[in-house]
């Protein structure tokens, strides 16, 4: 029989569970191993996602560069054609003999320039539409892939 100081109760035949340090260490090790495995899985998923995102951005920037160059080349070609047409028209105006011939040449030139401008605008619009689709495709594909993986998880 033992007495606890400060109290009037006695404690008889009380058994305390024995502490086995080897079992505790095994349990702590098991929990630590499980945490490490889970951390590796999470890191692997994050790493894979970051790599996919990086590839998508690289592809997007490369596509933007390529399509930007194409748009620039089409714009330069249109400006060059317009400048050449202007110089050719100016040479024709210098050789004009009468006022009626001047108006006839000017009217024909303006009409042709309006047609050319409309065609150039259509061409640039088509290039810009394709460029928009091409530039946004890698990011769109990466987002769709991420959503599919998210739904599967």
Automatic annotation (TrEMBL):
InterPro entries in the cross-refs: Phasin (IPR018968), Phasin_subfam-2 (IPR010234)
Positions of the Phasin domain: 53-141
Name of the molecule in the record: Phasin
Species this chain originates from: Mesorhizobium waimense
